[in-house]
Design goal:
By secondary structure, this protein is of the alpha/beta class. The protein has two domains: 159 residues, Rossmann fold, CATH 3.40.50.10950; 149 residues, Isopropylmalate Dehydrogenase (3-Layer(aba) Sandwich). Helices cover 42% and strands 18% of the residues. It has a six-stranded mixed beta sheet with strand order 8-7-9-6-5-10, sandwiched between helices. Strands 3-2-1-4-11 form a five-stranded parallel beta sheet, with helices on both faces. The N and C termini lie far apart (47 Å).
């Protein structure tokens, strides 16, 4: 019997927990509404639909989608839906936030608002959860969607967010590669200096919970033979599980190369906010949408457990 895929394992693990109450902002087209309802049918989430009620009901009727008595919070347009969805989370009415058929910028503007948003002391960042055919392990790529040119302090939070997500969804202690074009430190390539600094931060306890190595080039981060040829030892080289990219341009290109050339699936979640945020795309497959929800649910469950532990 074939072993379950990486995503199927995550989805099965998420089904073992309590469905997370998920505020869905403006699910006003078939793909976003179907995605929320499919995740609910799979036992992953309990959706609260926020948007123009008449439009949501019309989309459901046009595409044969059963709303099944789901709660709908009426909001006149996408901007109002984003603001209302974030307000519901702040009021404790939801454990996850999910993007519907509105622009990512429109939702994230409300998320990062200083007075009314969902920010914490951490920099908010995005993680792609990649299932690459032929590669034995799940790969995280961060940050390829939110932070364009992150500073060193931003990268510290990006790394810690990814480590916490990996551990929170039950995958143990991750091996983290800080990527650049080369594996040696040089002033000619600033990202190599950031990589070295991040590794020293981990040595000094400023980043915890993972094994860090960098700078590493992509080949010697993920391929044991490439690492061996370059004489790179240690737990990370050739066996990295989290790939931290220098900037959003590099990360976006890497994730899309894997998606379109290696036919990888790319689920995604935003971390570092008060709750996990599922950023879906109209191009996402049903399986990818489910995996994104599963990862967010597992992280939400981990946050719930951590909040229940009394401070020492």
């Amino acid at each position: 019997m074939a072993e379950p895929s990486k995503y199927e394992t995550l989805i099965a693990a998420a089904r073992d927990g309590t469905p997370a109450v998920t505020v869905v902002a403006h699910p006003c087209d078939e793909s976003s509404l179907r995605g929320a309802l499919d995740a609910a049918a799979a036992g992953l989430i309990e959706p609260v639909l926020v948007g123009p009620e008449a439009k949501i009901r019309r989309v459901a009727a046009e595409h044969g989608l059963d709303l099944g008595g789901r709660e709908i919070v009426d909001a006149p347009h996408s901007h109002a839906a984003a603001a209302r969805a974030v307000a519901l989370i702040r009021a404790g009415k939801g454990e996850l936030l999910m993007k519907g058929s509105l622009h990512t910028d429109e939702l994230m503007k409300e998320v990062i608002a200083a007075e009314t948003g969902l920010r914490t002391e951490r920099r908010i960042s995005h993680v792609f959860i990649m299932d690459v055919p032929g590669h034995p392990e799940t790969l995280f790529i961060t940050d390829a969607a939110i932070n364009i040119f992150p500073s060193l302090d931003d990268k510290r939070d990006i790394v810690q967010n990814a480590i916490d997500l990996w551990a929170g969804i039950g995958m143990g202690t991750p091996r983290v590669a800080i990527l650049s074009a080369v594996e040696t430190v040089t002033t000619k390539i600033p990202s190599t200096i950031d990589a070295a600094a991040l590794c020293k931060m981990a040595d000094r306890g400023q980043i915890t919970g993972g094994f860090l190595e960098g700078p590493l080039a992509f080949d010697n981060a993920v391929d044991p033979e490439a690492a061996r040829i370059k004489g790179l030892g240690g737990p990370v080289a050739g066996r990295a599980q989290i790939l931290v990219v220098p900037d959003m341009e590099a990360g976006n290109m890497l994730a899309k190369n894997l998606s379109f050339l290696a036919r990888a699936d790319a689920a995604g979640v935003v971390v570092g906010a008060r709750v996990p945020i599922v950023l879906t795309s109209r191009a996402d497959s049903v399986r990818t949408r489910m995996a994104s929800c599963a990862v967010a649910c597992l992280q939400s469950n981990a946050m719930r457990r951590a909040a229940a532990v009394p401070a020492v």
